Amino acid sequence: MSRRPPLSVLDLAIVGEGSSHSEALSNSVDLARNVERLGYHRHWVAEHHNMPGIASSAPAVLIAALGAETEHMRVGSGGVMLPNHAPLVVAEQFGMLEALHPGRIDLGIGRAPGTDGITAAALRRSLDPLSDEEFPRQLAELLGFFRGEFPEGHPYNRITAVPGKGDMPEIWLLGSSGYSAQVAGMLGMRFAFAHHFMPQNTDAALELYRSNFKPSEHLKEPYAMVAVAAIAAEDDERARYLSGPARLSMARLRSGMPTRFPTPEEAAAHEFTAEEEASVKPLSGSAMIGSAQTVREKLDAFVERTRADEIMITTMVHAHSDRVRSYELIAAEWGLEPR
Question: What pTM value is reported for the model?
C-alpha cells in the first residue's frame, strides 16, 4: 500500500468482570504510556454514563491524567457529548487542559448524550427533548468562548472563559450519521466517524463531509479520521477468542442490560439467542480481528476504500495485557516508528 495514515487509539477505560474502577483507570493511563512509546498519534477517551463496564464518564478529568503521564502524543476526547454540558464549562475545562499541555489537546464533540434517556435527563436536569437547533447553538457558544467573539448585543459577549479564550484545543466533530458530517464540512472542521458501531453509514457520511467541506482559518482541506474496532493476537484463532466478550457486552447493552465487561471464558460459554446474534451481526462483520497480518490486510483494504486520513483503533478485550499486546502487534505490522 502506497500510503498508510497515522494510527490512533480510542479508549473506553474498560471495567472488566473481577476488576475495579481504580484498576480500569490505572490501565487507561498505562495504555497511554504504551501507545505513545509505540508511535500512535493520539489517544482519546469516550464519554459514557450508566454503563457498568465503562469508567470514562468524565473525559476532562481522565485526559488531565493522561496528559501528565505522556510527553508527545496528543490526548483528547472522543468525545465530549455537548448536550450534557454547558458550553462555558467545556471551554474552561479544555482551555485549562490546553494551558497545561500546550499543543497536545483534542476536543472531539458529539451531539448524542452517550447514554440512555433517563440518565441524559439527569445530566441535563431536564426531560425536554433536544431541538434540531440546540446543538448548532451550543457549538456556536463553545467556539465563541474559545475565540472571545460573540455578536454585538449577545448576552455572553461580556464573559471571558479563563482558561479558555486563547487556549483553544484542536476541535473535531464526531458523528455516526450524515448530520455531523455535513456540519463539520460546512464549518471547515476535522471530522471523526464512528465506524466501529455504525459501519453501514461510513461511506455515505465521509462523502457528505468531503462534498460539503468549506476551508476555514483552521483547516484548508478536509480531514477525516475513522474509528474501527480491531483485535490482534498471535494468530486468528486467539484473536477470535479474545473478541467474544465484546460481542456479549454489546448484546447485553442492546437488550438494555449492560454489565461489567465479561471474561473470554464467560463469552465462550454463552449461548447467543437469535435476537442477540442479530443485534451484534453488523458490528461483528465490521470488526478487524485476527493475527497482525490479518488485521493489517483488513485495515489496508479499509483505508483504500474510505480514503481515511487517519485510523483510530478501539480494542475491547477483557485483559489489559491482551489489549496492550494487540496495539503492539498492529503498530509493528503497520510500520509505526517507536518513540
Answer: 0.94
